[in-house]
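QUALITY CONTROL LOG
STEP: pairwise intake check
CHECKER ROLE: data steward
CRITERIA: each record must contain a sequence immediately followed by its structure tokens, with no blank fields

ENTRY 1 OF 2
RESULT FIELD BELOW
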Amino acid sequence: MNKILFTFIFALFFSNIYSQESYVKLSFTKSNCPTIIIEKDIIANESTIGTKKDLILEMSVLKDKPNRKEHKFFNLTENGIVFFTLKNKPTFKTQTELNEFFGIEKNNEIYVNGYLIENSDFKIATESIIEIELIEPDSENKLERKVINVWTLTKEERTNGCKKQNAN
């Protein structure tokens, strides 16, 4: 009996080690666009960087899926992340400011491009906000309460994906 119990516990332990952590996202999320993060905590889009290439101090790309416990940006990594350090910090809104503006509890969850922001330190570059949706709970999205989804992607990028850049 002990041998069977030990084998069962051992099997569960190893199945959890090798299981993939899933992303928390809204059901309609289908983008292939990487997340852009400026100064380690400001979520942005390409247009925030696009015309300011001379202002880029540093850039790095994360393609691999990190560990959820060790990386506050884990849930934003499904399509990779591009990190930028700029000479000038863009203007931004905090999650609390967005929630209060929409009359929701200030610590309510916020999604960006359909992905849950799991860390309250993240801000959103003001010039990157294309659209904000107030999403009501329903049987499809299985939300417990109203949430905000901030789009930093155009409708074309949401539907057709982002353009692939060729390295020259």
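ENTRY 2 OF 2
RESULT FIELD BELOW
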Amino acid sequence: MKAAAITGPGTIVIRDQEAPQARGGRDLVVVKILVSPLCTEFKSRRAGHLSDELGHEAAGVVVDAASSQLVSEGDRVVVMPQFACGRCWLCLRGEHIHCPNQRDPLAESGSSHGRGTIAQYVIKPDWLLIKVPDDISLEHASMACCGFGPTFTAHQRLGTSALDSAAVSGCGPVGLGAVIQGVTRGAEVIALETQSYRSALAAKLGASHVFDPRESGVPEQIASLTQGRGASVGIETSGAPTAARLLADAIRTRGRMAIVAWTPEVVLPAIVPAGLEVHGCWHWNHQHFLQDMWTMIRKSGPAIDLMITHRMSLDDVARAMDLQDRGECGKIVLYPFGSEAVDAA
């Protein structure tokens, strides 16, 4: 199979690798990847973190179900991230993303490769695959990974509704998913973004106002839009050092806030006098909220088509990451077997 590999700072190539086989593992299956959304791997390329197992989100078709009782060959599926054990108390509650007991599917199966999703095939425990309904395209379904997943949980925990004004900090691929879902829930969405391409895209996706967080007086401007109160909910996706503090300052007393971006340290104002609720959100619970996610994706279909700004071949991964480096894209998806294979699935 073909798979992406970072070979040095700023360098990513496509290599030939042995395709994984679903042998030996109790529940391992192999998925042919037809849609491979890009996430933060471009940061690893920039830093020169060598790896030939890149990517953690995908949609495709099961091609080897082995002894699985959950999926069959030919099933269209979304591939959830990581390799959780499926047995600990967190996994049993559907919180597999927090599982401390990650499995090694390569050691279990004897395969040499197959953990990454910027590739043509991936090996996965069957319970970390979700079947795609017939009325949802694989491209739309792939947003159930990082395009929608983290901020789906954020909006859930915040209880975002048509009664809310929602401030979204950062309009990269994750933040744009937050914008779409906030608009779909009926909230007034106010976006914060420094890059002009993504600011314009956020507006197209329904953000009523987009502010540059580097400008002075942004919390005050948001307050002026919300009867002097500030936004009722906020989601931080940018990871910028001062972003969480700025967002918290833009949220009203007794407001709610979710941190999605991974940063070494989150700096907030005193949250007790403000009565601020703060949630850390990583991914979503597909065991409990699967139908809610499909409903969100169905309602958001036209917006997803705008959010995905580039559809490219696997061989174009370097050019795709160049766009990510410049911030001149929304969500990028790669087609490891070409667009025809996606259309036929």
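INTAKE CHECK: passed for both entries
DESCRIPTIVE NOTE, ENTRY 2: The chain has two domains: 2-147+307-344, 149-280.
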